[in-house]
């Protein structure tokens, strides 16, 4: 595999497993947001529990919600640990020092001054990822910088900024233009007017850059942990936000901006679109999204009461059961979301590689029209659009493929499985032919040896 977040949690790993449930077998579990949680520079830390083998209780600890790589944030504290006053003070100072050099307000001011500059004086420091005002040039002389930053470039910050690809923290995988355009067209066709873009800077940018066109009525608010975007958007267009702990870095004012955005038009015609990093922590994401949905629900609008805010949650298909656990009203669409900076999942002109990323939504599946020119077709029985390779299985009575390939029905498993799988009598489920069978601790009833069950006992095959 080519490395990267998607590869690590995706394409390679689940192929040999019977189900994604086994991924979390590491003895580390998320307990969630505790009311008295200590904070790191990324807001309140999350509570985890680590259990070692044979141990029941496990020890609880707090760790950074946003960074799963210790190199990015090494915050750690046992839940029962006594933290001295000195350490608390040092921590506070550390948190203060690890805030961005400029506030959002300052960045907005800087931007206003920047656009007044003639082209020849518009510089962007690539090392600091920052727009430079002439007075600051001196400090960045030995840095690489771009010159003549055009208005078009300012309108596409996701092209100007380098994608933060560090696997575990930001994992910025930007939508390929085609997928971004598809999402926006879909949103417009469904009649939405506002998009709460949570971790979707490129979608936000596409909406923002069209906002000046006369007949374009869609508005967007970006919530993202990547503070670099505050250089390009006002406080009404961007909130510095952590989606793993529902933390607004800008405090009550930023939260209010978000609330107001959701409340406009009595909360009508707004959809949340989110494309989080795939490193797990589905429950943390789900809990934040529920809070955003609850914020929307507070709008004083009769009839809303039993409704949910419409959501597109963009995530790999092998997280389907996890997402449905938290959002039973969601269903997974067959549309394959493509990315620009992830070679593995890019749809090339030739050798089209399949993307594992899908749209999960609480909208009625039949409303989500997928592009026929890309091979999607409508299944009248399932009442949704499916991939061209996705065959309706008569036995399951549904279009069962998750990955776009044609799946086959296994009568023993009583379900459809990947085309590359075969039924293994030892494991009692379908798996790759060259898999290593799960170790069965129990011994065989027939011969008394370990490693297989009675049904596959080698001594039986002689009789
Ligand atoms: N495909 C999207 C980008 C998805 S990449 C697009 O093209 O618009 C994941 C995004 O989530 C990135 O923008 C990243 O900055 C953001 N992100 C990562 N961790 C986050 C966190 N803890 N809270 C909020 N946003 C986060
Ligand atoms: Zn079907
Ligand atoms: Zn089937
Ligand atoms: Zn089987
Ligand atoms: Zn087996």
TrEMBL record:
Q: Show where the CCHC-type domain sits.
A: 444-459
- Where found in the cell? Cytoplasm
Keyword Signal (UniProt): no
GO CC annotations on file:
cytoplasm; nucleolus
Keywords in alphabetical order, please.
Cytoplasm, Metal-binding, Methyltransferase, S-adenosyl-L-methionine, Transferase, Zinc, Zinc-finger
Residue ranges occupied by any GRF-type domain in the UniProt entry: 40-82
Q: Name one GO molecular function term.
A: nucleic acid binding
| Predominant place of localization | cytoplasm
Instruction: Please indicate if the UniProt record lists Zinc as a keyword.
Output: yes
Q: What is this protein called?
A: Zinc finger CCHC domain-containing protein 4
Q: What is the lineage of its organism?
A: Eukaryota, Metazoa, Chordata, Craniata, Vertebrata
């Amino acid at each position: 595999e080519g490395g990267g977040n998607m590869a690590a949690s995706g394409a390679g790993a689940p192929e040999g497993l019977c189900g994604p449930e086994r991924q979390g077998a590491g003895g580390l579990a998320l307990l969630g947001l505790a009311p008295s949680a200590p904070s790191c520079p990324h807001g309140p830390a999350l509570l985890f529990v680590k259990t070692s083998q044979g141990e029941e209780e496990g020890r609880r600890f707090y760790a950074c919600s946003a960074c799963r790589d210790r190199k990015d944030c090494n915050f750690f504290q046992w839940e029962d640990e006594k933290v001295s006053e000195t350490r608390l003070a040092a921590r506070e100072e550390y948190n203060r020092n690890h805030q961005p050099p400029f506030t959002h307000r300052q960045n907005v001011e800087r931007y206003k001054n920047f656009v007044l500059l003639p082209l020849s004086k518009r510089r962007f420091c690539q090392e600091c990822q920052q727009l430079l005002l002439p007075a600051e040039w001196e400090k960045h002389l030995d840095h690489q910088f771009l010159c003549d930053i055009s208005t078009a470039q300012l309108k596409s910050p996701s092209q100007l900024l380098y994608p933060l690809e560090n696997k575990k923290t930001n994992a910025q995988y930007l939508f390929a233009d085609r997928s971004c355009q598809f999402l926006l067209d879909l949103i417009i066709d469904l009649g939405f007017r506002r998009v709460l873009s949570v971790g979707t800077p490129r979608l936000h940018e596409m909406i923002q850059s069209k906002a000046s066109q006369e007949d374009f009525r869609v508005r967007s608010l970006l919530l993202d942990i990547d503070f670099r975007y505050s250089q390009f958007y006002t406080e009404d267009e961007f909130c510095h936000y952590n989606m793993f702990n529902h933390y607004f870095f800008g405090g009550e004012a930023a939260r209010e901006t978000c609330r107001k955005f959701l409340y406009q038009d009595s909360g009508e015609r707004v959809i949340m679109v989110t494309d989080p990093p795939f490193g797990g922590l589905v429950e943390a994401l789900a809990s934040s999204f529920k809070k955003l949905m609850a914020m929307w629900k507070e709008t004083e609008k009769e009839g809303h009461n039993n409704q949910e805010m419409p959501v597109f949650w963009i995530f790999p298909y092998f997280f389907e059961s996890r997402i449905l656990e938290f959002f039973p009203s969601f269903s997974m669409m067959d549309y394959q979301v493509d990315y620009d900076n992830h070679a593995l999942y890019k749809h090339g002109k030739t050798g089209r590689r399949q993307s594992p990323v899908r749209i999960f939504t609480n909208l009625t599946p039949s409303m989500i029209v997928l592009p026929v020119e890309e091979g999607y077709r409508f299944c009248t029985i399932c009442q949704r659009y499916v991939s061209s390779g996705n065959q309706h299985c008569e036995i399951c009575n549904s279009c069962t493929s998750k990955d776009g390939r044609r799946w086959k029905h296994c009568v023993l498993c009583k379900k459809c499985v990947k085309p590359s799988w075969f039924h293994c009598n030892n494991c009692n489920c379908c798996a790759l032919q060259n898999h290593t069978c799960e170790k069965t601790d129990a011994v065989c009833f027939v011969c008394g040896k370990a490693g297989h069950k009675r049904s596959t006992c080698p001594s039986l095959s002689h009789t």
